[in-house]
Design goal:
globular, 413 residues, 15 helices, mainly alpha, five-stranded parallel sheet, 5% strand
Length: 413
Amino acid sequence: MSFSDVFTLQRSGLGIGDFKHIPSPPSTHLFATLQRIEEFSNEDVEMQAPLLEELIVVVLDTNILLDYLDVIQAFVAEVEEQGLPVMVIIPGVVIYELDGQKNRERLSWFARRASTWLLKKVKERRTVKGQALDETCKASRNWKKRDLDAVLEFGSERSNDSLIIDCCKYFLHIRQRRTFLCSKDKLLTVEAESESVSTISPDRDAFCSRDIAQALFGFEASRFKFSGYHPTYRNSSVNLIQATPTSEPDDDGMDIDDDCSSVPQLLHPSHSLDLLHLQVIEYFTGLLLELVARIAGPEVQSFGRNISASKHAPAFSRKGFATWGALECLDYIGTKKSLPKTSPRVDTFMTRPYEGVGARRGQDWSRRDWETALKGLREIGDQWQDGSIRESVPAAELHISYVFAMPMRPTGL
């Protein structure tokens, strides 16, 4: 059963009371992205193969993806860089819950960021995996089938929690791997602990990749490199105000080479406009890469491979597609259709601070600059009938309004 068929009771044996999700509306880009995540999860036989004995499983709750995506991104990147035996699992119900956030003003931006990153990582088939339909402890071998015992224990209003617990128990008891649930929900973590599932719960604003590693590896974590805390733009009014990084005690003996106390502030800004700007660059660059792949088709494989290319050839053609940023994407798109004429130019605004001519921090752009750049992105989405860009711009614009309405230092890190 595909994602779009979930709410049809007659399909796949689902009956009254079984888990079902009704998207609204079903044609949105976010819905399509999440549908692809579920399809990859169920079709990816390779990721459902026998697991390494030493593998540690981390199951993520929706609230972690919405509020701490940057921490999870850092953790996954550091796990992959060091080749550590960790698998991050996204319960099926969490995928549906992300879709449910798209119409909630403050959460839409974070849900879209999370879903886009999840699809990218699931397709890589490395460390992040979605729960397959049969990865459940239920006798039906279908996690969407309602379990009467779970309803009696959790109540119908908290049935999603029972599905997350079921996912954890599957990897703990059936796949027999050390399993951790990462969640902000205190009640859910208590229930998980009662089922012998270890938990990781952010107990302070300075939650970071190192905290997850410490929970997974204990004292052994000191052998590895995991990053400490640095501010990120999050779904919290507190984090919309100018934040100041706080140093962490290094009482666990872990490497702190990239801690915020020792890294140049350019790498770890704390001003809300700077933090939001970096998210906008990262997120829309990903969407622009998808648009280029759609426009160019198989041609993307040829970029950067012609070593005899003339020095007068476009810069993007001399770089491998995997290394492209927003600048290369926009240069390529501009060869197909004229780009919107804006001031500042969209490509300048979409360049990380100080990494190109005219590029600057988020706080150095005026509100008009922000609005103009986002308007340019929206026009590109309109030109190419790209729903992902067109739907995402309003979600970003809302947070721009929030940040400019908050009291903060007008300048500074």
